[in-house]
Design brief:
heterodimer; A: about 240 residues; six-stranded mixed β-sheet; four-stranded antiparallel β-sheet; 8 helices; 10 strands; about 35% helix; globular; B: about 220 residues; mainly alpha
């Protein structure tokens, strides 16, 4: 599902975050959005999910405008912090968000995320990394056309970060979900994304885009992105 | 005191005990049901209707002890008036804790539940109801204490049986040892009601204090 964002502006009261911003998210590809802290990365995800409405401009899905409720059916969202239901066990949390006709059942999903011994545990009994794995498990049980991820690998230890990134790549290759990833970690972004979009300006009014297809020298692009972010930080650190 | 207690035990203790317990249980269950339901409604759906919440807060501010004689005049010396008074007093701590709990729900959690397909009745049973029960736990325990205060008030104002009635009766006739016995029984009933409630709550809803449950059972 191709997402077209056209001339959107958004503010939190006096804090103007986005101004006349336009860009596209390509269908069935992973697009990462990066920018300095407070630049509005998570806001963009929430606008796409229909959790905020833009003040001006429009967001279209395959050329069509969708209401918030129809967007909910097509979107999965991994938040920065755990959003597991505290009163449901791991298995129940996966079960409740699972849709019919998925190739994996809830038990298999638990095994796949390495939590088969913890499936009857409550979220309060799990570590931050385990909770994040359950969040991934919930995604596996859904048939969403769009996946929005806000720092999904940040709470994981090195082992599971690699494991889940590999798992994510496999799922992505299989399902071809239109995915938008927000992250601070440039290595992470480079390892899973096809497109990178860097938010520029305060309020954000410009986007710098990179297509990583066929790119061999990732170190060079990493250096470029780091320098761009550093410049942005210097420019707007007083704000 | 011990001899007087044995006398009471062989005369009307079990009837008094049963009547008081039944009045508290029924009053508390009604308050629990209405308090949680109203808390969800005011927290989720009616929070913009300030009049509804102000109205409930106004009623909450009227001390239920002062309402006891009015309930008695309007409804008579009936079981209904006693149970209603207990429900009235127990309702407000449950309602206010549920209301605040629902209002304070993490926004990401609410959004995520919607994105995970929890809407309509499914959202009510799987999201709002467990969230309400979770947040009103303290209110429920406060309500148990209030229930015992109000059952004593209602029984001492007009009843034929009940620990509160017996206590009021002993007070009027200045029978201090018997009065102390009734007072101790009332305290033990309150304490065990709280313990049993906590046990039932933790058994059916273990998610909230799961680590604490493993450590102790308070």
């Amino acid at each position: 599902m191709r997402i077209t964002i056209k001339d959107i502006s958004f503010d939190y009261g006096l804090n103007e975050v986005l101004k006349d911003l336009s860009f596209n998210i390509e269908s069935k590809e992973v697009t990462s959005i990066i920018g300095i802290s407070g630049s509005g990365k998570s806001t963009i995800l929430k606008l796409i999910a229909g959790l905020h409405e833009p003040k001006f401009g429009s967001i279209n899905f395959n050329g069509q405008k969708k209401t918030a409720s129809t967007r909910f059916e097509n979107i999965s969202y991994i938040f920065q912090n755990s959003t597991l239901l505290p009163w449901k066990t791991v298995l129940q949390n996966i079960e409740i968000s699972k849709v019919e006709n998925t190739p994996l059942n809830s038990n298999e999903i638990c095994k796949l995320i390495g939590l088969e011994d913890f499936m009857h545990f409550y979220p309060s009994q799990l570590s931050g990394g385990m909770k994040q794995r359950v969040e991934f498990g919930r995604i596996l049980g859904r048939q969403s056309k769009i996946l929005l991820m806000d720092e999904p690998f940040s709470n994981l230890d090195v082992h599971y970060r690699k494991y889940l990134k590999d798992l994510f790549r496999e799922i992505q290759a299989l399902k071809g979900t239109t995915t938008i990833l927000v992250s601070h970690n440039i290595d992470e972004v480079l390892s899973v994304s096809r497109f990178i979009k860097i938010l520029l300006g305060r309020p954000v009014n410009k986007i710098l885009e990179f297509d990583l297809l066929g790119l061999i020298n990732k170190e060079k692009i990493k250096e470029d992105i780091t320098n761009i972010l550093l410049e942005e930080f210097k420019k707007y650190r007083k704000i | 005191m011990g001899v007087k207690f044995v006398d009471w035990l062989y005369s009307s203790f079990f009837i008094d005990f049963s009547f008081t317990l039944l009045r508290v249980i029924l009053g508390f269950i009604i308050a629990l049901f209405l308090g949680v339901l109203t808390g969800i409604l005011t927290g989720k759906y009616f929070f913009e209707f300030k009049g509804v919440i102000s109205g409930l807060n106004y009623l909450r501010a009227i001390t239920p002890v002062a309402l006891a004689p009015i309930f008695l005049i309007i409804l008579g010396v009936s079981e209904f008036s006693k149970i209603l008074l207990v429900s009235w007093g127990a309702f407000f701590p449950i309602w206010i804790s549920t209301h605040i709990g629902i209002r304070a729900l993490n926004l990401d959690l609410v959004i995520s539940s919607k994105l995970n397909g929890l809407t309509g009745f499914k959202a009510f049973t799987n999201f709002y109801l467990p969230a309400a029960i979770s947040s009103s736990y303290s209110g429920m325990r406060v309500a148990i204490g209030i229930s015992y205060i109000l059952v004593f008030i209602s029984e001492s104002l007009g009843a034929n049986y009940g620990v509160g009635y017996r206590l009021g009766n002993y007070y009027d006739t200045i029978q201090t040892p018997q009065m102390m016995n009734a007072l101790i029984v009332l305290g033990i009933m309150g304490l065990f009601s709280d313990k049993i409630f906590t046990y039932i709550y933790n058994y059916y809803f273990p998610w909230k204090n799961i680590k604490r449950i493993n450590e102790d059972n308070n």
